[in-house]
Design brief:
Blueprint lengths: L12 E10 L3 H12 L4 E4 L16 E2 L14 H9 L10 H4 L4 H6 L4 E2 L2 H14 L3 E3 L3 E8 L2 E9 L2 E12 L5 H6 L3 E3 L4 E2 L4 E5 L2 E5 L18 H7 L3 H8 L2 E2 L4 H25 L4 E5 L9 E3 L17 E6 L7 E5 L11 E3 L8 H7 L2 H15 L10 H10 L13
Parallel strand pairs: 1-2, 1-8, 2-5, 8-18
Antiparallel strand pairs: 3-4, 6-7, 7-8, 9-15, 10-13, 11-12, 11-14, 16-17
Helix pairs in contact: 1-11, 2-11, 11-12
Bound molecules: flavin-adenine dinucleotide (FAD).
Flavin-adenine dinucleotide binds next to helix 1, strand 3, strand 6 and helix 11.
């Protein structure tokens, strides 16, 4: 490969902040909210021009459960606040009546604490809330490099319409979903071994009704013979066959290679177009209303932190737990998330949240979804309001703050009514 040497040049320091949150997805939103409420000056960088990341621009509008599937709520705090905000005007589907209106245990088991929201209203509402909290949002701004001195990030180099400049930081929370800051700062990272299958969700209208199409729902690409039986509801709502899943899932991508990422988006668009056209042929009213405008990446690069959480650690008590999550895929399992999975020893003022936290590949499939991303975002923002050397943070103080904000930390705090 040919190489050139980029000339050294001076960069202006365009801003400074206590807490720089890189990435405005669910994790970044929760982190910015928590850090701002903790009294910090927060800058939130987002390369797109709206908040919510995968959940809004990716049209992943299903807010997965805050409960364990057995009628018990396990996720509280900002994750629950965001769920409520996402449907404050009403839910697109699955309004959690039993949970909002003190329904019976049976009703809470029958309908998990989850919902479906309008991505556009959610993105706009969150923007207003962050602005009210004094968070400075920088849209169209890519975190492109870091300056590290003595194991601390001193500046994050950003690129936007103004060009390239540096932001002086006290601490940084990596919420890019791809561990970009961790990688740029030289923190240890891991890639998901299997990468990602193609997916491209879109909303379509047909006969006057607007519906969500989860095109490329299944990450595990099934053989035709072994294809899982789709639930009746999924069949009705999705209209896809196992064969279709197989055909769009045959290509896998890592999520951190620029050219490959573009190729995967082009391939998804082609598949989506063909899918829409084949349906449009039989139903003239079948047309897309909106489609995901960021790549749908489930698992890419994450921090290899001070602790790596595994899915075998169901109901394991961690003294440094910062919250819990259930398993969106099945009923029963509950996991505590240790603070150590949010930081590494090498870069002391860096935290990871959302898809970036330190887990095994198997655990990643549990912690990557919206509710746990908000849990780790809130914990990271709260921690950043308390200090900037996360390897030496007073964890009890962090836990006390989280508790004051309604978060439950350990499985023995689950309320069984
Ligand atoms: C196909 C698919 C289906 C899914 N289905 C569901 C579901 O039904 N329910 C559910 O709860 N979850 C689902 N998920 C998972 C969930 O949507 C996401 O994993 C979760 O929303 C991730 O939140 P996040 O904040 O960690 O990351 P993201 O949402 O990825 O946010 C990262 C943000 O950082 C920005 N960014 C990235 N790099 C940079 C940079 N260098 N500088 C500045 N900004 C940057 C991005 O633009 C983005 O806005 C699904 C995911 C996929 C891919």
């Amino acid at each position: 490969m040919k190489e050139i040497v980029e000339k050294e040049r001076k960069l202006s320091v365009s801003a400074s902040c206590d807490v720089l949150v890189a990435g405005g997805g669910i994790a970044g939103i929760a982190a910015a909210m928590a850090a701002a409420r903790g009294g910090k000056k927060v800058i939130l960088l987002e390369r797109e021009f709206a908040l919510g990341g995968m959940a809004t621009l990716g049209l992943v509008t299903i807010y997965l459960p805050l409960c364990d599937g057995e009628g018990n709520q396990v996720i509280y705090g900002i994750a629950e606040e965001l769920l409520r905000i996402s449907i404050e005007h009403g839910a697109e589907a699955n309004y959690p009546t039993a949970w909002f209106e003190n329904g019976s245990r049976e009703a809470r088991i029958a309908k998990r604490y989850m919902t479906q929201f309008n991505p556009h209203l959610f993105a706009m509402r969150i923007e207003q809330i962050l602005a009210e909290l004094g968070v400075k949002i920088l849209y169209g701004t890519l975190a492109a490099q870091t300056v590290v001195e003595d194991g601390r990030i001193t500046h994050v180099v950003v690129e936007n319409k103004s060009g390239r400049s540096a932001i002086e930081v006290e601490s940084v929370i990596d919420c890019t979903g791809d561990g970009d800051i961790c990688h740029l700062a030289g923190a240890p990272t891991e890639l998901h071994a299997k990468g990602n299958a193609l997916a491209g969700w879109y909303y379509y209208q047909s006969k006057g009704e607007v519906s969500l199409k989860m095109f490329g729902l299944a990450d595990v690409v099934p053989d035709k013979e072994n294809a899982p039986k789709l639930s009746e509801k999924a069949d009705k709502g999705l209209n896809y066959t196992a064969e279709k899943v197989k055909s769009i899932g045959s290509f896998r991508f890592s999520g951190v290679d620029g050219e490959e990422l573009s190729d995967s988006v082009v391939a998804v668009h082609k598949q989506m177009y063909d899918d829409i056209m084949s349906r449009h042929k039989d139903d003239e009213s079948y047309l897309p209303v909106t489609m995901s405008t960021i790549p749908l990446v489930r698992m890419s690069r994450r921090l290899a932190g001070a602790y790596t959480l595994d899915d075998s650690e169901e109901r394991v008590r961690f003294d440094d737990s910062i919250g819990m999550t259930g398993d969106w895929r099945k009923r029963g399992p509950v996991y505590e998330i240790p603070f150590r999975s949010l930081y590494c020893k090498e870069i002391k003022n860096l935290l990871a949240a959302g898809r970036d936290i330190s887990t095994t590949d198997r655990m990643w499939d549990i912690t990557r979804v919206i509710p746990p991303c908000a849990v780790t975002g809130e914990a990271a923002g709260t921690a950043a309001a308390l200090g900037s050397d996360f390897t030496a943070l007073d964890v009890e103080k962090l836990q006390q703050k989280l508790r004051e904000n309604g978060v439950r930390l350990h499985t023995d705090e689950i309320c069984r009514e």
